[in-house]
Design a protein that fits this description.
The chain is α/β, with parallel strands linked by helices. It folds into three domains: 55 residues; 233 residues, Rossmann fold (3-Layer(aba) Sandwich), CATH 3.40.50.2000; 66 residues, no CATH class. It has 15 helices and ten strands. The strands form two sheets. It has an eight-stranded mixed beta sheet, with helices on both faces. Strands 9-10 form a two-stranded parallel ribbon. β5, α6 and β6 form a beta-alpha-beta unit. α5 crosses α6, α6 packs parallel to α9 and α7 packs antiparallel against α9. The N and C termini lie far apart (65 Å).
Length: 447
């Protein structure tokens, strides 16, 4: 039987536990109330600002009724015209073919090299790696562009290939016909690897944040040296500074914003994926608290960097219109309606009272077709079989065909690693529920 002192001690401990629990609930409630109040204040401020700007707009230019086609013809800050089609790219290239432009791309996480990319090796080495390498290669072949540098991290770790430790790698052009006769000693597209962070360790992107400033210091040294070299080659002795710095993902965007400010060079940003949207999706799953998500993904540091990118960028490239409306719309630095009204005012030459927002341009990711051999769809089945009999099917073909009741139907091919965030289940569900689409095509998911 417990003594009165033991009972009193247990009762006191229980009382403290109850008090701490009640206090924790109270603090969480107060924090939620403060967050809600701040959100309401931001929304009110946005509505008030939009209302102020609306006063000077004609009815045809307000809100959702702004003529997108006319507004897209102008840049938010007047530095860069929009290039929206192949014809426009050809026109732009012809107009600038005599220029010697220097472009800098930044993508600092993952394993980046020009050939034999290890796509899918880890979560940091995926589609973005392919995207930035092919973008650099294509820009390097564009008339008027003299040099493109894709800046990334130099990695000399024993568990990765030695090629990731090479300071510089030239990207071979896909089409030599696009190369001009005035190619110089330093012209073309290059991967430039800047040493920063642990010298002999390959680390995930979440661990790169403390080393961003070290990368920026090294990148500044390279850009200044290269600008002087290009000045001696094509600038009549004057440094040739980058015409734009293009950051990819939040970590490189943070770096690009610092470089842009230091060099007074326009910045472009591509998010690839966004922190606020990811945070919302993870919290909806209910498997982790906000603090646990932040500890795992450094999500608040990422969101802070993305807000900085909004403030520093001239243009933000997105893959879809949904990314603009539903994802960037979650950020303090961007408001869809406000951005449209600002563009309308700029188009009319009306003052924006110092308010600025980056121009959002959706550019769906493309595909590199140099390795694709198209089949003649005009041939009937017998002729197609005769024509195609000389070329052997790839080994994987038999494994795929055995699942189809009608293998002659065209194929919808989804390429992605088997990761929940790639949302393959939604694609399969949408395809399975669409009777007409199932009759027209076969779906293949390859990871």
């Amino acid at each position: 039987m417990r003594s009165p002192q033991e009972r009193n001690t247990r009762l006191e401990n229980m009382s403290w536990r109850i008090w701490n629990l009640a206090r924790k609930i109270q603090i969480e409630g107060e924090e939620a109330s403060r967050s809600s109040k701040k959100r309401l204040e931001r929304e009110k401020a946005r509505r008030d600002a939009a209302a102020d700007l609306s006063e000077d707009l004609s009815d045809g230019e307000k809100g959702e009724h702004i003529n997108e086609s006319s507004i897209h013809a102008e840049s938010t800050r007047g530095h860069m015209p929009r290039i929206g089609s192949t014809d426009a790219i050809d026109v732009w290239a012809n107009q600038h073919k005599d220029k010697k432009l220097y472009i800098v791309l930044v993508s600092i996480h993952g394993l980046i090299r020009g050939e034999n990319m290890e796509l899918g090796r880890d979560s940091d080495t995926g589609g973005q790696v392919k995207y930035v390498v092919e973008l650099a290669r294509a820009l390097g072949e564009t008339p008027g562009v003299y040099r493109v540098d894709l800046l990334t991290r130099q990695i000399s770790a024993p568990d990765v290939d030695w090629s990731y430790g090479e300071p510089t790698e030239m990207l071979s052009p896909r089409n030599s016909e696009n190369l001009g006769d005035d190619m110089g000693e330093s012209s073309g597209a290059y991967i430039v690897r800047i040493p920063f962070g642990p010298r002999e360790k390959y680390i995930p992107k979440e661990q790169l944040w403390p080393h961003i400033q070290e990368f920026v210091d090294g990148a500044l040294v390279h850009i200044m040296q290269m600008s002087k070299v290009l000045g001696e080659q094509v600038g009549n002795g004057q440094p040739v500074w980058p015409v734009v710095i293009h950051g990819h993902y939040a970590d490189a965007g943070d770096s690009a914003a610092l470089l842009s400010g230091a060099l007074n060079v326009p910045m472009v940003f591509t998010g690839h994926s966004l922190g606020r949207d990811k945070l919302e999706q993870l919290l909806k799953q209910g498997r982790q608290t906000r603090d646990e998500v932040n500890a795992t993904y450094k999500i608040m540091r990422r969101i802070e960097a993305e807000e900085l990118c909004l403030d520093a960028s001239e243009i933000v490239i997105t893959s879809t219109r949904q990314e603009i409306d539903k994802q960037w719309g979650l950020y303090n630095g961007f408001d869809v309606i406000m951005e449209r009204k600002l563009r309308a005012r700029i188009k009319r030459g009306v003052s924006c009272y110092g308010r600025e927002m980056p121009r959002m341009i959706p550019i769906p990711p493309g595909m590199e077709f140099s390795h694709i051999v198209p089949h003649d769809v005009d041939l009937d089945s017998e002729e197609a079989n005769e024509v195609g009999s000389d070329s052997p099917d790839p080994p994987v073909w038999a494994d795929i065909m055995r699942f189809f009741s009608n293998p002659r139907k065209p194929m919808i091919l989804a390429l992605a690693r088997p990761d929940p965030k790639k949302n393959i289940t939604t694609l399969v569900k949408a395809f399975g529920e669409h009777h007409e689409l199932r009759n027209l095509a076969n779906l293949v998911c390859h990871g």
